[in-house]
Amino acid sequence: MKDxxxxxxxxxxxxDGEQSPGAAMTKxxxxxxxxxxxxxxxxxxxxxxxxxxxxxxDAIHTIAGLIHNSTVCSLARASENDVRRAGEAIQPAxxxxxxxxxxxxxxxxxxxxxxxxxxxxxxxxxxxxxQAVKWALEYTHDVEFSAEDAxxxxxxxxxxxxxxxxxxxATTINVPDTVGYSIPAPxxxxxxxLIQRVKHSxxxxxxxxxxxxxxxxxxxxxx
Length: 223
Prior knowledge:
The chain is an alpha/beta fold and 223 residues long. It has one domain (10-222): TIM Barrel, CATH 3.20.20. It is built from eight helices and seven strands.
């Protein structure tokens, strides 16, 4: 939310929703869902993960050309290839002034992920996050950054990362509960703390992406 009066709906049915068991969708099914989401007035449709497969790329590319009233988005890891594929996939949405495409890039910021998955230091993660935003800006002015596993990330480090990516040009900051670990009170407190401490927090849209492992996704989002 930019302020207390504006709520932006970011729907990830076509990307994260498809990861649910038995929820694989054909291109035609994705197009049908995207059209319905547009009719519902959804602000942003995350149509897939362009670098994941040729099928995902094709679906995003097609949807980006068909949807007119919602922003079409592709997910991308903080790698040059991922961002490039995302940028290419959303190009049909960039052909007309009234349309828009978004790149949603992410990197893990929790100690357990940085040490055991990324094998990167904090400095390296910050540098990569900034570089990913800069790569994305070569394709679109609408760039979202997510700190994967933010719920288990050190709050001081999150502030540092968010400060850096906002300075680099990110326009939306997403704080995900990647492992579905949190409950409403501490999650709301974490969001409030970040918004208060991050420089220029008023210049970006703040977003949250909560998983439902504990049945708390909606409650956490509202918190």
